[in-house]
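Ticket #4471: structure output looks truncated?

Reporter: J.K.
Steps to reproduce: submitted the chain below (330 residues) through the standard prediction queue, then opened the result file.
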Amino acid sequence: MELKIVIIYERPGVRTLRRVPLASLAAGLAIVVLTSCASSQDGPSGAAPSTAAPSPASSSARVSVVASTNVYGDIVSQIGGDRVDVVSIISDPSQDPHSFEANAQTQLRLSTAKVIVENGGGYDDFVDTMLKASGNPGAQVLNAVTVSGKTAEPGAELNEHIWYDIPSVGKLADQLAAALSKADAAGASQFTANASAFKTKLQVLEKEEAEVAATAKGEGVAITEPVPLYLLDACGLVNRTPAKFSEAIEAGDDIPPRVLQETLTLLTGKRVAALVYNEQTAGPETEKVKQAAEQSDVAVVPVTETLPSGKDYIGWMTDNIAAVRAAVSR
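Returned output as attached by the reporter:
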C-alpha cells in the first residue's frame, strides 16, 4: 500500500512549496518525499524527459539527481545529458504547486541522490527537511537563491522566484556542471561543454529582454504575484501593482477591498500596458482582476511556476519574453 499525504503549508506572510512535519508521517516508513499530485517517477514534464536519452552505461551508473521542480529538472537534463537520471518532485503544470502529495517512493530517490537542486529562499524548504531525515549527508545540494547571490533589500522580502532571472540561471548552470563533474569525473568535459552551450542560449534570452527594454522605456504593468518580476525588470517594465495586493495573494489572504479597487482601477483606467497573470494560482479575486483587464482591452500575459507541457526552459522563457514584447507593443 502506498501512503499519500496531501499537504498545504502556509506561513504568515509567505506562500511557499512548504515543508511537512516529519512526525506526521507514518513511523513505519524510513523515508517520505513530497511530490506533486500528478508526479510519478517521471521527471520534468515537457521536452526534456525525466531521465536523459539512453546512455551506454546502465541507468544505475548515471548520476542520480533530484530537483524540487521540473524547471530545475530540465536545466539539469540540459547540463547532464545522458549521464544523469533526473527526478522532479513538482512537475504538474496544471495545478497550484503550493499543494502536493507526499509519496514514499520518490523520497527513496532523495535518500540516494548524488546531487539535489532546490530553489531556496523559502520556496521549497521541504527539500531540506526531508533531506535531513533521509540519511544522505553526502549529497551535493545546490540552492538556486544562494548561487544567485541575491539578497533582500533592507525592509523588503527577497523575491525567491530565481528561475525567472536569466543571469542567475547561468550561474546555476556553472554550479551544476561542477557538481556533476564531482559526482562523475569521467563526464566532466561533457558537463562543461553542455553548460557552455546552455549559457549561450541564455545570452540570446538576455538580448531579447534588452530589446524589449529599449522600447518599453519604463512602461507600467500589473501582476497578480511577483513570480515574473525578474524578467519584467530585465524588460524595462515597472510594476505598478499595490504591494498589498500581491502580498495578500502570495499569503493566501483576503485582499482588502480598497487594495482590490486600486488594482482594478489600474486596469479599467488603462494605466498599465499589461496584466501579468500567474495562471497556476488563480482564485476568485485574481479572476476578477483578469476580467477587468480583458474588458478594458489591457493585454493579459499568463505565466506559470512550472514548465508547461512540451516546453524546455529555453523555449518557455523565449515564449514568456515574446508575450511581454507583444503586450507592450500594442
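Triage note (M.O.): checked the attachment and the full C-alpha cell line is present. Confidence is low (pLDDT under 50) at residues 1-56.
Status: closed, working as intended.
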